[in-house]
């Protein structure tokens, strides 16, 4: 990768939210490490000093146990030991004059820390820090016992080095982890941005890749892909609308124009003009009906009507439709039979659901031969309810069952039969609005329409 590109990618990672979060975490960790160091340092130092104080007190007790006349000799023997002992001693008389010992200046009574110069060592002035305990005796003398603090100072230095390196390592690891995390986040975000750019450029089939990890990016990708599929469907529908309108409305408009031209050329009486106008009005009504159906579908697809959903007794709704459409189908020499389970409730828009079932009944009425039986069945299920409507007509070929749910699609290529090709499109739109699974199948022979309603959610 070129150096310039590496710098650019690195700059983007540094500016990313994931890297900033890693920096904050590193700082927090450093603060925690510092706090832990201070607590550990104070605890360790306090413990060691207490141990030193206790050993000094014990040694002081051993020295003070000697008679006053023998204390100087005892101190002298201790200082003359080879190797030298760990303690420092001094005995000062009542005039504060050093009698014997290696602590040259009398410290204050009680506990104190003194610094004692030991002369030049390796060209430097050597200084010892000594923790001392001094107490006045009954004869006016002062006994001082101390111990070098070199071990405590070494522990301080060791703890500082350990925690410094550990803290630096933790900060570096946190920053490195932030870089790795930021790189991964940046890669996923760029994949989403690339898909969005392709979509903005007109590639509506572009989708965000899913890794299968089930993380937040996968959940976002699933939601975005669902939205993109919806957008693609709507955009493709919009692209097709103009062609559909031109194709399906051209015929009635052409007929209307021809009739009006014929009336202008041939009509010689008021009755002739009146008949021509009536036929033209019928063509206009057909066009207006088509536009009204398109507007209904658009309104349903906008999903705005979900706000008006109420509890509906689906059993009663279907029973009323059977009562209303049973005689209509009988007049057209078809037989409607129904099997409706009582007290089946759903949630939705009663008018739209009624329109959906009316369209299915009229579809069976208009696209089946005389004498065709039509059946309607409603059954409750554990996860909702199911409505099945089927007939023994010609049915719909399997390869056409998805296409007929789109607007202006008709199996009659010549378009000589009644209808605008919007009936099943409205059925599909209403089903989608209510989250109903719509399935077109084979009734063997005939068409089988299955509607699986979702489980009813109480308001």
Automatic annotation (TrEMBL):
Occurrences of domain Histidine kinase (ranges): 244-457
Localization annotation: Membrane
Question: Which catalytic reaction applies to this protein?
Answer: ATP + protein L-histidine = ADP + protein N-phospho-L-histidine
Q: Which UniProt keywords apply?
A: Kinase, Membrane, Phosphoprotein, Transferase, Transmembrane, Transmembrane helix, Two-component regulatory system
Q: Which Pfam families match?
A: HAMP, HATPase_c
Write down the SMART domains for this protein, in alphabetical order: HAMP, HATPase_c, HisKA
What EC designation does it have? 2.7.13.3
Top-tier EC class: transferase
Question: Which residue ranges traverse the bilayer?
Answer: 21-44, 162-182
The family database entries (PROSITE patterns) matched by this protein are listed as: HAMP, HIS_KIN
Note the superkingdom of the native organism.
Bacteria
Report the residue ranges that make up the HAMP domain in this protein.
Answer: 183-236
Q: What GO terms are given for molecular function? A: kinase activity
The protein's name: histidine kinase
Q: Which species is this UniProt entry from?
A: Dyella acidisoli
Instruction: Kindly list the organism's lineage.
Output: Bacteria, Pseudomonadati, Pseudomonadota, Gammaproteobacteria, Lysobacterales
